[in-house]
Model the fold of this input.
Amino acid sequence: MRKKITLLFIILISIYGFGQSNSNVQYIRKNANTPEAKADLEAMNVAFKKMREMGCEKGLSWYYQGAIHNIPNTINGKNNLCPEYQTSKDKLWAWSDCTHDKTVSAKLHFLLWHRLYIWHLEKIVRELSGKKDFALPYWNYGSTTTADNVMAEPIRDKSGSLYIASRYGILNNGQPILPGQVNEIQRALNELKTNPSFTGAAGFSQNLEQAPHGFMHDLIGGEYAKPAETYYNEIYQLQNYSGLMANVPSAGFDPVFWLHHSMIDRIWESWDVSINGQRPTLQQLQTNPWPYEFITPTGQRVSYTMKEVYDIVFNMDYKYDNLLYGSKAPVLTAKGPKESAKKLVSFQDSKEKIIWEQKIGKPIEGTGFTHKVASNFAQNTNKAFKTAVNSRIVLNLDVVVYKEPKDYYTVYLRYPGKEDEYVGTMTFFGVSHEHGTGENHELAETGVKLNFSYYISDDLSKSDVNFEIVIKKTGEGDAKVTLEKITVAQIN
Ligand SMILES: [Cu+2]
Done:
């Protein structure tokens, strides 16, 4: 009898123990602008000093780590940062693995790949700095606290190893992100909170990749400055170019990249543990695989199968000091309150039922663009919205660009007499990387087709009135963007 009770006790403990989805949490990622993060930023400074002195062929070096994300196909002139690398044929192991392209696989792996990429860098910094509890700080941009919108001081310290000159001037000067831009980040974060799907064009991952992810890349790289700023980009070795962060092939070389992607990871974590959070399935990863190749703190190569990736990404060894959306960060030890294991997987939104579509074929010019939705189309939309039990209505915008725009476009629904309802933001980070030559962001003469998708169920009104679709342009870029087609569809 006693044996049975003991056994039962052990079983209960095991169930309780295994219920902890984050039982191996050992490190805390902190807000870069708090005193608590100071020692971690100093550890980064120590580590990056060593990494910058390692040349480019050692896996632990600053250059190698940046190149794992991506590297320009051609360096302008003799490469003085890495004489061994001149064109893409000189690529070393794992270089240019990042997920910034338009394939289904890349879109699916964006958050997962970057999570493991920065996690490996985190371990390298821990080793090289000797700070045993090092965790990658995050930049809490979009915060309502103004001080959080400043780029952390050690990142812009000219005498340190984390400084890069080719960044938006006001940020390198220690001024906060401008209020209008902060507002843009906040709206994007707010809209993401209730996104009902991980995958899909309108899903959480792809919308987060647009904003604030792409938004911040272009902002830090100087493209949203007025007028847009240009610099000497030391990775391309080109004058009058946008900053490291605004270009996929040079972004991984700017140390602020790691703080930015720590924040992107935190936004994901916040949503993942929230009531709206969904996950891709292992099968989806296996059907659409991606290379996961990184360097261990001892400089060894390591790669992962999709099964290994899946096991790691949802059971990380770090947590954030706090999360967005009122979400609770997991506890530090296995003794904490039991969490319900996440079972919800992302629904596929490939089965779109088109409610209406309309060819447009006009450039979005000047201050913006307004499309009056035809009466019967508006009524069909309203009807679908009101009658569907779990209404998931998406707005698809097909656009064509001829050059990577240095502007961003904000999409709204407008009902008469009401404030414009924010739907989402179009950003263009990576467009020329996917399609262009890289030089001056030039694209093919015929232009490049892009699709932007947004869930609008939370923006539609439960009324029968007609509405308009409004697209506002922010910035002073001269790139032509044409709106080709608008589609409103329902996802089952
Ligand atoms: Cu990025």
